[in-house]
Design a protein that fits this description.
The structure holds two protein chains of two kinds. In chain A, 80% of the residues lie in helices and 3% in strands. Chain A is an all-alpha fold. Chain A has a two-stranded antiparallel sheet. Chain A is rod-shaped. The N and C termini of chain A lie far apart (185 Å). By secondary structure, chain B is mostly helical. Chain B has one domain (3-266). Chain B is 71% helix and 3% strand. Chain B has helices spanning 3-11, 41-62, 70-91, 100-115, 131-151, 154-161, 171-219, 223-266, and strands spanning 28-31, 38-40. In chain B, strands 1-2 form a two-stranded antiparallel ribbon. Chain B is globular and about 70 Å long. The N and C termini of chain B lie far apart (59 Å). The chains are: A mainly alpha, B mainly alpha. Chains A and B meet through helix 2 and helix 3 of A and strand 2, helix 2, helix 3, helix 4 and helix 5 of B.
Chain lengths: 212, 270
């Protein structure tokens, strides 16, 4: 183009060279771009990139933290479950033990009670025997005296000394015991009692009659 | 039918209506009276844009927090758009970081100076002055060639890499010439002229509708033409919003192509 001629002519730029870059604007453009580029590359972009890194780190850190928390919660849950299981097993064991122990105690107590009752029964039997024995002895002497008295009254003579000497009473009693003399029931009411008590009990309310 | 005599009337109105032309883009503030060197109005807007953008982004990034404030959120949206939407997606996650200042400068500077075309009281897209697209294109041009020469093993390696491998022998010289034309002439020309042409044409169109509307409304002396003037104004408002879209789109396209050329330069093969 006629750049040189236009420039030499003075104010010709707009009309004759509308599409040619204007030198003043080129300079301004270069300066403007340089300043902005410098500002961005030194002050804006590095900080923005820092922020991006920081933000992604924060997000990653948060995620990691959350993962850790979840893992910890899971561990706590596992531990809790294990403890619960253990406790349940222990409770079961204790219950089983208690049951077994209870059963053994019952058995033992039962044995003890059995022994005790046996002992009491034995003691009672012995006592009864002893009392019976003493009753028999005292009765024997009383019955002897009474029957002797009765006999002497009936017979009318004193048989005391003789009877004592001859042992009539003893013999009578021996006969009585050996069953030669049957006891005779005193009343109808005492029939059942007498049969229940057994015929071998001489202490019952019976009168004795000479056997037929 | 109606408009023909009316237009004729306008045209014969003693040269009253001056059609907007490239002359309207010449707006010296200081100088320019006696020579062609001047500090122009677009230059002033360009410098103001650097001050505003620099102040905004530097002040925001000087106190960044992980939880952003409103201003930081806005700044981050813009930065994120360039960083992830253009830089990382086009150049690739491996190589995009060193080019972030360049891409971010391109995008914000071009966007601001494009949108200056619709900012009230400025209403002059700085990028419609061809000097600015040329400067920015030159930066991109030099950058992608330097990067490519470094990456592909010197000038010879770079030139060799222009021809894709596996071509038959007779096709190689043709392909080489085509690729050299593309990389060294077509790309910078289209990059600069696309931005400049869009901004200049858009601004010129707005000028036609607004200046023409004003003339029809105030100086035509006819009610019908006044109505046409109102219509022209209304349409200029619609076109202003359309321009806003174009202005954003051109800033995006310029930055996108810059990233594309850089990704070509850093790629392992052709």
């Amino acid at each position: 183009m006629h750049l040189a001629s236009v420039a030499a002519e003075g104010v010709g730029w707009p009309d004759q060279l509308p599409l040619l870059p204007h030198p003043g604007e080129i300079i301004v453009g270069v300066v403007a771009f340089a300043i902005l580029y410098w500002l961005y590359s030194t002050k804006v972009v590095p900080r923005m990139e820092e922020l991006y890194a920081e933000r992604s780190a924060a997000i990653e850190g948060g995620m990691k933290q959350a993962e850790e928390a979840q893992a910890a919660a899971q561990a706590a849950l596992d531990q809790y479950n294990a403890q619960l299981h253990e406790a349940r097993a222990e409770a079961n064991k204790i219950r089983e033990d208690a049951r077994a122990q209870g059963a053994s105690i019952v058995t033992e107590m039962r044995g003890q009670a059995q022994a005790e009752s046996t002992r009491i029964t034995e003691a009672a039997k012995k006592q009864i025997d002893a009392e019976r024995q003493s009753a028999v002895v005292s009765l024997r002497s009383q019955v002897g005296a009474m029957s002797t008295e009765l006999a002497s009254r009936i017979v009318g003579e004193s048989l005391h000394d003789e009877a004592r000497q001859s042992g009539i009473v003893d013999r009578f009693l021996a006969e009585l015991e050996s069953g030669d003399i049957k006891p005779e029931k005193v009343g109808s009411a005492s029939v059942a009692q007498g049969s229940a008590a057994g015929s071998d009990d001489p202490t019952a309310d019976t009168t004795f009659t000479q056997g037929s | 039918m109606l408009s023909v005599p009316l237009m004729a009337g306008v045209a014969t109105d003693g040269g009253g209506f001056q059609t907007p032309s490239t002359n309207d883009f010449w707006w010296p503030l200081i100088g320019g009276d006696h020579n062609n060197f001047a500090f122009t109005r677009p230059s002033l807007v360009m410098l103001i844009s650097v001050v505003v953008l620099g102040w905004f982004f530097v002040s925001v990034s000087s106190r960044l927090s992980v939880v952003p404030s409103k201003r930081q959120w806005l700044a981050e949206q813009v930065y994120d758009f360039v960083r992830n939407g253009i830089g990382r997606d086009v150049i690739g996650a491996k190589d995009f970081k060193p080019f972030l200042p360049l891409l971010f400068t391109m995008f914000t500077l071009i966007l601001f100076n494009n949108v200056a075309g619709v900012i009230p009281f400025v209403q002059y897209p700085t990028t419609s002055r061809i000097a600015f697209p040329i400067i920015l294109t030159l930066v991109v041009y030099v950058t992608y060639h330097v990067v490519a020469i470094r990456r592909k093993g010197g000038v010879f390696g770079y030139l060799k890499s222009l021809v894709p491998p596996g071509l038959p022998g007779w096709l190689r010289p043709i392909m080489f010439i085509l690729e050299v034309l593309t990389y060294f002439f077509v790309r910078p020309l289209t990059l600069a002229l696309r931005l400049f042409g869009n901004m200049m044409a858009g601004h010129l169109m707005l000028l036609v509708f607004i200046v023409g509307g004003e003339y029809l409304l105030l100086h035509s002396g006819s009610i019908a033409l006044g109505g046409a003037g109102v219509l022209s104004f209304a349409f200029s408002i619609v076109m202003t919003f359309f321009e806003l879209l174009i202005e954003f789109l051109q800033a995006f396209i310029f930055t996108m192509l810059t990233a594309l050329y850089l990704s070509d330069a850093v790629s392992e093969h052709h």
